[in-house]
Each structure stands twice: as C-alpha cells, then as structure tokens.
TrEMBL record:
It comes from Chrysophaeum taylorii. One of its GO terms (molecular function) is 3-deoxy-7-phosphoheptulonate synthase activity. This is Phospho-2-dehydro-3-deoxyheptonate aldolase. Binds 1 divalent cation per subunit. The enzyme is active with manganese, cobalt or cadmium ions. Pathway: Metabolic intermediate biosynthesis; chorismate biosynthesis; chorismate from D-erythrose 4-phosphate and phosphoenolpyruvate: step 1/7. Its EC number is 2.5.1.54. The chain holds residues 261 to 735 of 756 of the full protein.
Length: 475
C-alpha cells in the first residue's frame, strides 16, 4: 500500500517499553562502587591541598554533620522529574554562578527565591504545566577552571576555584586551597536551606501574597507591570474559585516545593555528605537534591562519573556542541542502566549560533534509542564574552535566541523541551547587557557588577525571560 517505498522509521518506543540498545563504547572494567571509589580514577579539576592531614580532619568533621537534604525529598523530586521527562512538567533552575561568603545575607537569598516564584507563576500560567523549582543555591560554590594558574603582571598564582576552595584576592595566601573553607560553605548552606525551607512553607509563598513578590526595583518597569497584570488575573481566578466554594487555603496554594542543585565538583565535600538511606539502603549525596556534572568533568570512567553513578539523586550532565550522539548515549547508558525516567537530565549549552545545527542530531539519537532523558537548556554558558573594557558579560538577546532555538528544535523533533537552567539573581545587578527595553548598556556594566564568577541576569531580565519562555511553552 505504500507503493514499495521503504518503511518509515519506527516511532520511538514509549519509555516504559524501551529496550536497552547495544553498548556503543567498550565498557570499562566495572569495579564495586563505594562513596570513595572515585579516588581510584583519574580526577579532573582536582584540588591540591597543602596539608593532607588537615583535609582528612575536615572530611571527618563533615561526615559527622547533619545531612542538608533528605532522601525522601530527593525521591519526590525524582518523581516530578520523571513526569517532566514524559512531558508533564517543566524545570526552572536558577541562581548564582558561584555563591560566595561575602555576598551571603538573608535578603539576597529571599530576593532570588522571590524572582523564581514570580517566574514560576508566569510560566505555570502561560505554559499550563507544573513548574519544578530548583535553586542553584545552598551548595553552588566550587568552580571548574580552564587553567589552574592565573597570571597577572608576570606573577603566577593558583586560579580562584570558588569560595569553598580558596578566595579571590590575587595573593598567594588567598589563593592557597584551605580545606576548612568546606566547613564554612557547609554552614552557609545549612543557613540558606533553612531560609528557603521557611519561605517555601512558612507563608511567604502563599499565592494570596503574589502581589508582594514584586521586588521594589521592578515597581515602575515594563516587566513589573506585566507581572502585576498577571497577578490580577490570578487573583480574579482565586476569587472565582472561592465564590463557588473551592478551598484556596490548601497547601497546594499556600506552600511551594523548592529544591536545590549544584555542580558536583569538589568530591571530598560530596563524599563526606553522602549517606546510606535507612529505609532503602541506597546511597544519597545529601548536599543537594540534584547534582550535575559539568562540561569539563564529564569524561567517561573518570572520577566525577564514577562518584555520581552510585548515588541515587537525580543527575544532570552539561553538554556542549563538542558532544557526539555516541557520547550522549554512552552517558545515558552508564548513568542510567535501568532507563528510569527522571534519573538523567541533559543540560545543553551550545551558544545561540550553534544550537539549531548541533542539538538536533543529539536529540534525534536519544529519541530513537528510547532512552529516558529530560532536556534542559542552559542558554547562558555558551553566550559569554568579554567586552573591550574587560567585563565578562552576556547579551539578553543571545540568551533568548538560544532558548528559542531550543524550543524550535524540540518542536520539530516532537520531543519535550523540559526546562531552563539560568545564572540569575534577584538583585538589581548590571552584569548582562540588554533586556526587553535595553535596560543594561555596555557603559552601565561597571555600576553594579558584583558576581564572583560568571555574569547573572538581574531580576528584571530574568522575569522578562520567563514571559518569553511562557509564550514558547504555549505554542
Ligand atoms: C556553570 O554551570 O557555572 C558551569 C561552569 O557550566 P559549564 O560546565 O556548562 O561550563
Ligand atoms: Mn557559570
């Protein structure tokens, strides 16, 4: 009946029936996993501490500290990510490139949380999907570097690796890794999580307060007023629900679920916070609900993959345009042999100029293999550049363009664009240029450029992007 034409490609198998494809790369010798088995592997981005006994002391102390997150919470997140993998849900992951000791204060945590709430509301309303909120918070300290050495005026010093390793001033003392910084980071994470938990369930996130989430500096801006009109519409819907007898004081409307994630980079810290769950016997890295492996440390068989393959947290892996379909399938097979939806999230960071060409072969290969994968777009890391005046920045329009490319590719291939991963803050910083009304100009960058690593979208830029995302989700 098809006139002798070759049969069309089979439709991708539903995930539940997926058959594991043949291994693509030769499997390495699999050793027994343990929280410390990564130490037998090649370690990229390893930190050399001058005093080994001091490091061991800190590791012992951290091992005795309370877990920051709990296995039950991690499993709930995994279930939500599983639904999102199958098309029912969208992830909003955002926060600083690097948290810092100096910038830490309750108001900064609150303001980033607040913008994420506004963005999630905008996207739920516009996109009609549950939004899974995950902060790059309460653990996002360690930074991978392209060079371990920084040279200034002929002087070579170790590069700054994040506040849990060393500190930023260009002196030998500041740049020497100090293991005790892991303890300071841990205690800051505990405080941050305490604030986030209180805001999530203690009344702050009650939908009846949605007008109060607008930040002061957004008051007379385009994004602020777009948010305000949306808030009025939601208010009206709530009033209608109450009028017909629906209870609007249930926990779905008065509380929110908020999760944390960071790059799994500093393995002594991650190992020390890894605990065996008493109810299931599984291992969980209790430093965050979700961990991701960065673009620089995702070599198969090396330490970071060895560590994460044994923990039961949902995992992210960053993918750039350098990844091949074989690489991506290998990642999904080794980290998720059971093909469990929600276990693996691939976070693509290609750059606006490459995404439309480089993403389709990867998505197609995964789709046709039947492998479970949640796709997130990180539209910021592939669009970073230095201005003539020396500021590392990003242009709002390029970020938006990469995101639109991400939605276009998934739409064309019939796959689910599962979420976004952003470097952003609730503060009114001037680190990324542009915005819907061209609000940060090149000459403004020096006004409030305070990031410890990469440039972040400010509250207005982040909210503007949420309106753009909501529109794409609807299409
Ligand atoms: C980051 O997320 O801050 C980061 C370093 O990303 P990537 O690994 O994608 O470069
Ligand atoms: Mn970054």
């Amino acid at each position: 009946p098809n006139g002798g034409a070759p049969p069309t490609a089979p439709h991708p198998q539903p995930l539940q029936q997926a058959v594991a494809p043949a291994p693509i790369l030769a499997a390495r010798v699999v050793t027994q996993w343990s929280p410390s088995s990564w130490r037998q592997c090649e370690i990229h981005q390893a930190v050399e501490y001058p005093d080994q006994s001091e490091l061991e002391k800190v590791e012992r102390e951290l091992s005795g500290c309370a877990p920051l997150v709990f296995a039950g919470e991690v499993r709930t997140l995994q279930e939500k990510l599983a639904k999102a993998t199958l098309g029912d849900g969208f992830v909003l992951m955002g926060g600083d490139c690097a948290e810092s000791f100096d910038e830490f204060c309750v108001n900064n945590v609150r303001d980033t949380f607040r913008v994420i709430l506004q963005m999630a509301l905008t996207m739920t309303y516009g996109g009609g999907l549950p939004i899974i909120k995950i902060g790059r918070m309460a653990g996002q300290f360690a930074k991978p570097r392209s060079s371990t050495i920084e040279t200034r005026e002929g002087l070579d010093l170790p590069a700054y690796r994040g506040d849990n390793v060393n500190s930023e001033p260009f002196t030998s003392e500041a740049r020497t890794p100090d293991p005790r910084r892991m303890l300071q980071a841990y205690h800051q994470c505990a405080q941050t999580l305490n604030i986030l938990r209180a805001f999530s369930v203690g009344g702050y996130a009650d939908i009846s307060r949605l007008h109060a989430w607008n930040l002061d500096f957004m008051e007379h801006t385009k994004e602020g007023s777009m948010y305000r009109s949306l808030a009025w519409k939601i208010d009206e819907s709530l009033r209608f629900m109450r009028a017909i007898g629906i209870d609007t004081t249930t926990s779905e409307l008065t509380q929110t679920a908020f999760y944390t994630a960071h790059e799994c980079l500093l393995l002594p810290y991650e190992q020390a916070l890894t605990r065996q769950d008493s109810t299931t016997g599984r291992w969980y890295d209790c430093s965050a609900h979700m961990l991701w492996v960065g673009e620089r440390t995702r070599q198969p068989g090396c330490a970071h993959f060895e560590f994460v393959r044994g923990i039961s947290n949902p995992l992210g892996v960053k993918i750039s345009d350098k990844a091949t379909p074989e690489d991506v399938l290998h990642i999904l097979e080794t980290l998720n042999p059971q093909n469990t939806p929600g276990r693996i999230t691939l976070i693509t960071r290609f750059g606006a100029d490459k995404i439309r060409e480089k993403l389709p072969p990867l998505v197609k290969a995964v789709r046709d293999s039947g492998r479970a994968c949640l796709w997130l777009s990180d539209p910021v890391h592939g669009n970073t550049f230095k201005t003539d005046s020396g500021f590392k920045t990003r242009d709002y329009d390029k970020i938006k363009d990469e995101l639109m490319g991400f939605f276009d590719v998934h739409k064309a291939l019939g796959t689910h664009p599962g979420g976004v991963h952003l470097e952003m803050t609730g503060q009114d910083v001037t680190e990324c240029v542009g915005g819907d009304v061209g609000q940060v100009k090149y000459e403004d960058l020096n006004q409030r450029y305070i990031t410890h690593c990469d440039p972040r979208l400010n509250g207005r830029q982040a909210l503007a992007l949420a309106f753009d995302i909501a529109e794409s989700m609807r299409e």
